[in-house]
Design brief:
heterodimer; A: mainly alpha; two-stranded antiparallel ribbon; B: mainly alpha; 3-stranded mixed beta sheet; two-stranded antiparallel sheet; 52% helix; globular
Chain lengths: 217, 265
């Protein structure tokens, strides 16, 4: 029987690999490459282990830093801890216990944790856990003297521009204050109108007056 | 080393510290243990000093409004002290510190000034540099802590002609001081801003070892004239040969001097 009229056991043409073609095809080159890498890694680890032992230390294998981790940078603004003062929030009933999940307090979205005070919150923001969750490496790039110089020049320019905006003339200051007040009033009016539109009849919410409203007895 | 840690954990590790050394020891040890602990517990340190490098430290330093050590009943560290500690963590290169110290503001004026400047003229010019005075004070404090004696005298003495005001926070309030006074304290005192400064060899000592040239005072010849006046006055009084008189005049001159000193302050 020659190869051209090779037939399967149940009739029909057999596929190219004969009757074992259903088996997985192994890409030899790729697996060779993988084996080589594995071997190299093991050798490196063994070497590190040996060197650590020479120094009298214990070797700890640690996960490598992900390649897309970015450098940690300094906070560009003050942490705003007063933004939620006086606001009302709905929190789930079970949220009062522990840090897990969104509850009353300072909430970190990336790590899904809630903290009761700003010290705990800031400590969390500085922690390794948070840095990893936000894809930061925890390392800060060293600045050169030239970068420092550029930064200082920039800061100086910024300060000069800010001082230009400051007005010393009393009339002009009154004018600016009036404008700001007008803008605030406009904003308030817009909000009130929006609220009114949201209610069904367009009359707005009936204000509930309580006795001794706002006075703590 | 192209990067450093964002927090001070490695710095405060007193067994496995492997960073830059200052005079053979961990730079953190230049600040006393009690103050160091208060710094690392303070909110300013945790919030504002996290992840700073030598460039972003400038942002914080130009916002400083006073120098000082600790204040209040609890001994809260000032932002100034926190930034000093941050500098001790970073241990920036010399030219970075000099940039802090002598930042002129205009693009390329610095080098020209240095070329034709010497003696008294140099003093006045260097006083005009240092656009941000609290950044300058910060750099001066760091230099006193971290550099070698000869360099300290050479870099800090030009600052003695900088007469700008500085606000200093004390335990329970503020006092007024001046940049030259601040720098003079750095060179002569052994304790400042809640930090004990390491023992600096005196200027006379270094001059004897011929490591330093004698200082040219910006007052120039006026000092000699003042000295001459003193000698003249004493000579004039001597011939009377009465001990009481001499003592009286000496007291008089002493009173006069302390009086003029307080006027200057």
């Amino acid at each position: 029987m020659n190869s051209s009229d090779k037939r399967g056991a149940y009739g029909g043409n057999a596929p190219a690999g004969g009757d074992t073609a259903f088996r997985k095809q192994w890409d030899r080159a790729e697996y060779e490459e993988r084996a080589r890498e594995q071997e190299k890694k093991q050798k490196e680890e063994g070497k590190a282990r040996y060197e650590a032992a020479l120094q009298g230390k214990k070797y700890h294998r640690r996960a490598s830093t992900p390649p897309d981790a970015r450098d940690t940078e300094a906070r560009s603004s003050r942490l705003d801890v007063a933004s939620m003062v006086g606001k009302t929030m709905l929190v789930p009933a079970g949220a009062a216990v522990g840090k897990r999940g969104k509850g009353a307090g300072f909430y970190c979205g990336e790590c899904d944790l809630t903290f009761k005070d700003n010290i705990q919150y800031i400590e969390h923001l500085n922690s390794r856990q948070h840095l990893i969750a936000t894809g930061q490496s925890g390392e800060v790039k060293r600045a050169t003297a030239d970068e420092v110089r550029q930064r200082l020049l920039w800061l100086k320019r910024k300060r000069e521009e800010e001082s230009k905006e400051q007005v010393v003339d009393l009339g002009a200051r009154l004018e600016v204050a009036k404008e700001v007040e007008e803008r605030e009033r406009e904003e308030k009016r817009r909000k009130r109108n929006e609220k009114r539109r949201k209610t069904k009849d367009g009359l707005g919410h009936a204000e509930i007056k309580l006795e001794n409203d706002g006075i703590i007895c | 080393m192209y990067s450093h840690k964002a927090d001070a954990k490695a710095l405060l590790d007193d067994r496995g510290y492997s960073g830059a050394l200052i005079r053979g020891q961990n730079p953190a040890l230049l600040i006393e243990k009690a103050v160091r602990d208060r710094i690392t517990e303070s909110y300013y340190w945790k919030e504002q000093c996290f992840g700073l490098n030598a460039a972003t430290l400038c942002d914080r330093a130009i916002e400083l409004t006073f120098v000082g050590g600790t204040y209040g009943g609890m001994g809260k560290p000032t932002p100034f002290l926190c930034l000093v500690f941050k500098l001790l963590q970073l241990v920036p290169e010399k030219d970075v510190i000099l940039e802090y110290l002598n930042f002129g503001g205009d693009g390329d004026g610095g080098e020209e000034e240095e070329e034709n400047g010497n003696g008294v003229g140099e003093h006045q010019r260097s006083a005009q540099r240092g656009e941000f005075k609290y950044l300058r004070a910060l750099a001066a404090f760091y230099i006193r802590l971290a550099w070698e004696p000869v360099e300290i005298y050479q870099t800090l003495e030009p600052l003695l002609s900088d007469y700008r005001k500085l606000k200093r926070r004390t335990r329970d309030g503020f006092t007024l001081t001046y940049m030259d006074q601040f720098v003079d304290d750095l060179l002569t005192k052994d304790r400042m801003c809640a930090t004990s400064l390491w023992k600096l060899p005196s200027r006379a000592n270094l001059e004897d070892l011929e490591m330093l040239d004698p200082r040219i005072s910006p007052l120039g010849d006026e000092i000699d004239e003042l000295d001459a006046e003193d000698v003249d006055m004493e000579k004039r009084d001597r011939p009377q040969d009465s001990e009481d008189d001499v003592r009286e005049v000496r007291n008089g001159s002493a009173v006069k001097y302390s009086g003029s000193g307080s006027e200057k302050d």
